[in-house]
Amino acid sequence: MADTQDVVELILQDHRRMEDLFRLMRSVEADRSAALDEFAGLLIAHAAAEEAEVYPVLKRYERIDDEEVEHGEHEHDEGNKALLDLLEVEEVGSEEWDSKLEDLVAAITHHTDEEERTILNSARENVAMGRREELGRAFREERERRLKDDCGSLRNVRGIVRS
Fold first, then answer.
1. 2: pLDDT confidence band, cut at 50, 70 and 90?
2. Quick one: pLDDT at residue 69?
3. What's CA 59's distance to the chain center, in Å?
């Protein structure tokens, strides 16, 4: 699946990587700070690519619920705020850090679960594979562009949340 162009599969791959990073951020044996840095970039790039390249196209499909797509965008905002709250904690592994991490996990897990059951399943059923592959290429390019721009930096996340 690593070489897929299907936007649904690419989004799912990102979701699974986020889950892996949550496990690392929870582990005292892992480099929790590095895991957070990778997570921050992935989350911001992933959400921005969905909102720029995927969601607008899916809204055009009659059988894909616009309200679900808009709800997904709202949940991106909630996830970004939870990420900022964690990034602003000074001591990795402190009680406050662990608490903010669990808030982030809850927000993102809720979103990915809902997105997978509603938006992505609808895309599987209603969007032809060729179109999903076109969307996948656009999603991947936008996500990579954002990652190269250090989109998960504290400064950038602050700007996103406060805008």
1. low
2. 81
3. 19
Long-range contacts of 13-19 (CB under 8 A, 24+ apart): 14/42, 14/46, 14/143, 15/112, 15/115, 15/116, 17/42, 18/42, 18/43, 18/46, 18/108, 18/112
> Would you say how long the chain is, in residues?
163
**8 Å CB contact between 4 and 65:** no
Contact residues for 65 (Cβ-Cβ < 8 A; gap 6+): 118, 119, 122
DSSP string across 90-138: SSTTSHHHHHHHHHHHHHHHHHHHHHIIIIIHHHHHHS-HHHHHHHHHH
pLDDT, tens digit (0-9, with 9 covering 90-100), for 98-122: 999 999 999 999 999 999 999 999 9
Q: How far is CA 88 from CA 35, 85, 93, 134, in A?
A: 15, 5, 13, 37
Give pTM, 2 decimals: 0.94
**Residue range 125-153: mean pLDDT, rounded:** 97
Token output for 62: 């009659």
